Amino acid sequence: MKLLKRSDELISHMKIKGIKFDIAKEEDAKVFLQNNNYYMKLASYRANYDKQKSSDKYINLDFAYLQELSTIDMHLRYLILQMCLDVEHALKTRLLKDIEDNPEEDGYDIIRRFVTKYERSCQNIQKHKSSEYCRELIEKYYPYFPAWVFVELISFGDMVKLYEYYTERYPGRLKDSDLLYSIRDLRNATAHSNCLINKLQKGTNKPSVKIIKFVSNIDGIGASMRKNKLSNKFLYDFVTLLYVYNEFINADVVKEKRFKQIQVFIDGRAIKNKEYFDKNECIKTAYFFVKKVVDYINEAC
């Protein structure tokens, strides 16, 4: 079991690991760790850097680089969470509208069938019966929920399952659900303030054919880069979010606003200290890839 270390002990540990304090001084780093971020989270961004095999020390890594990555990550999380919430709202709206227009549905039967198959969805609702925000709805309708109440009480993960269940029962009425689990993963990660850009290397993710085709249309992204970057879980999920957002959000004003916010971030805050990463090909190429996709989606919007 690892013992809890004080901030000065953590700094000594980082120096042993080869992390430098040339840009960010040790006293400033100590204050940052005490007031702005905690070590485990900040240290996770080290994974984007190589180590010397002989000494096990990081190569070209200053504490300031970890600070900058954590700050970029924070801004990116806020933008992504907003987009995921927009998608969640669009899913609910589309589903309820189609149930209303579906002569085979009354708003109750689809939910009865769904909870019979996925009993945990009702169990999850029961966990929130003491919440002031949904207690009255649960008391009034449990366990025979109409669709318009049910979607207000379930998690985004269960919402994706419900949407998928409906599209399988009534194929062709709504857009496919196959990409929505990536949005769920991003939504959960951002809502829980998980790190997003702490592992940007090539991974083992298997991308959807839809996303492969989408990225294939973007000038400047070759087959090798496309394969490499889409194998990374976060990069794939982020591109999928942009694709799904463009497909599911009907309000052009909202869509243009969100895509503009992402563009401004990519062209501005994300590269405020770009010189920090001049020697890191992993981070540089990830940025190049993301910028190409963001530029493309804004031009197409």
Comma- or semicolon-separated keywords:
mainly alpha, 301 residues
Summarize the structure.
By secondary structure, this protein is mainly α. About 65% of the residues lie in helices and about 0% in strands. The mean pLDDT is about 95.
Question: Can you walk me through this structure?
Answer:
The protein has 301 residues and is an all-alpha fold. Helices cover 63% and strands 0% of the residues. The radius of gyration is 23 Å and the shape is globular.
The share of residues in helices is 55-70%
Largest sheet: none
Distance linking N and C termini: 52 Å
Our Rg estimate from Cα atoms comes to: 23 Å
Residue-averaged pLDDT, rounded? Answer: 94
Task: Name the overall outline.
Answer: globular
The fraction of residues in strands falls at under 5%
Order of helices and strands: HHHHHHHHHHHHHHH
Structural class: mainly alpha
Task: Furnish the topology, listing elements before pairings.
Layout: H1 7-16, H2 26-35, H3 39-43, H4 63-101, H5 109-117, H6 119-126, H7 135-141, H8 147-153, H9 156-169, H10 180-191, H11 209-216, H12 223-230, H13 233-248, H14 252-267, H15 281-300
